[in-house]
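quick q for whoever's on today - can somebody do inverse folding on this one?? i tried earlier but teh output was garbage lol. tokens:
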């Protein structure tokens, strides 16, 4: 399944900041250390040189990815007309059949973060939530079986 090209404004700025840091700060530092390590002679057994070259390849790969991805992404800002329904960027509080309460934020696949309870708009839970209102019920098929949720609240601004 293809990834959505949606991202929150904060998410886009975070990726842009990472790209600028890698290109303008970290890459020049690593390039300098590789040059210094290369000047020491035999490169075949020079751990600093070998590690530095590996790190440069990682940085360059990430820079290429971020440059391309930032061009593809579409920033989605909350629209006042969305209030009361679940759409991209919403914080949604759900209660399952066992009365467990969870709050998720629907974000783009480039910014999902389980530690923050941010889930991808492409996830089964998010897809089931789109367009729903408070008090609606959804069912989601999980590896452990079907889970039912009741929507307790929807908001578009963090507290």
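ok took a stab at it. sequence:
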């Amino acid at each position: 399944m293809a990834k959505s090209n949606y991202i929150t404004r904060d998410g886009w700025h975070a990726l842009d900041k990472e790209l600028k840091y890698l290109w303008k700060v970290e890459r020049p530092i690593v390039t300098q250390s590789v040059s210094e390590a290369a000047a020491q002679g035999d490169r075949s057994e020079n751990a600093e040189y070998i590690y530095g070259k590996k790190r440069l390849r990682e940085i360059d790969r990430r820079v290429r990815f971020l440059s391309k991805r930032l061009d593809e992404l579409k920033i989605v800002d909350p629209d006042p007309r969305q209030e009361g329904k679940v759409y991209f960027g919403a914080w949604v509080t759900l209660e399952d059949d066992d009365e467990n309460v969870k709050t998720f934020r629907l974000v783009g696949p480039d910014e999902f973060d389980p530690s923050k309870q941010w889930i991808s708009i492409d996830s089964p839970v998010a897809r089931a939530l789109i367009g729903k209102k408070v008090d609606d019920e959804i069912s989601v098929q999980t590896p452990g079986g079907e889970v039912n949720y009741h929507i307790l609240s929807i908001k578009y601004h963090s507290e």
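fwiw The mean pLDDT is 92. also The helical segments are 9-38, 47-72, 124-129. so keep that in mind when u check it
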